[in-house]
User: Fold Signaling protein from Tepidimonas fonticaldi.
Amino acid sequence: RMKQEGRNGLRFFSPDLQANTQRSLELAAALKGAIAANELFLVFQPQMALRDGRLTGAEALLRWQHPKWGAVSPAEFIPLAEQTGSIVPIGRWVQRQALRTVRAWDEAGLPPITLAINVSAVQFAQTELVDELCTMARDAGVPPERIEIELTEAVALRDPVAAGKTLQRLHNAGFRLSIDDFGTGYSSLSYLRDFSVNKLKIDRSFVRDIAHDEMARRLVRTMVDMAHALGMTAIAEGVETDEQRAHLQACGCDEIQGFLYSRPLEADAFVAFARANARP
Ligand code: C2E
Ligand code: MG
Ligand code: MG
Ligand code: MG
Assistant:
């Protein structure tokens, strides 16, 4: 219950909403100090090939552990960070940490794993993004091919001309590119053809329905075919059941990511998982 209708039609904010707003303000303020206070860390969710169940890559997902609020969900704090601009330093921290992690995996003797990082609209609009990523990768001694930049359709479509240029620069620098939450935005084939995207990430909402909804199955099959026609890989997000996995396999999907194989893992647990599931 967000709002209450008053007797004479006036709307009152409920105490719930006030508390919510207060929380947002406090969170936004606390977020500014989160890097310095060492409250941020990355977790890593495995991505597996459907054909043989081997590990192909991972997605880095940001976590915030606050002394007062405990674990705050990125679904809550990323939008706040975008509104206040904190996302820019936080995004840089994520990139640096991700590169450091890839380097550590290599030094630990893991087979080469591609690590995907999420980049939001505000970060993507920063003209220095590409140069910074290149410098960070060079400093970390990590080839750009090992980093995949995840962008949602909404970001790519906000300003397609500018986005296309940035994607082209990232591609030329050697970074891999994927479209996140695919199917929830307004894609057009032409933008996918023009952008040098490697991978489509089929949104969880389609995967959720795939086992009981023929239309969801047809849509997934169409998205997979489209990815392949454009020379891209298709990965399904949010796969939780064997039944979903079987349907995705029947649709020709290449990879899956989801709780069925693994939740996002902390660094040490990921290394153990990678050792057990690496390509031979
Ligand atoms: P996303 O990039 O689409 O990430 C996938 C989300 O789905 C993650 O939520 C992941 O934990 C969750 N997930 C994975 N498998 C399953 C499953 O089988 N079932 C269900 N129910 N959920 C699954 P998370 O970690 O809470 O992140 C939420 C969103 O926050 C991400 O969505 C992404 O948009 C954003 N985010 C996370 N980390 C970062 C970051 O470092 N930078 C930016 N800009 N955004 C981030
Ligand atoms: Mg993502
Ligand atoms: Mg997604
Ligand atoms: Mg998402």
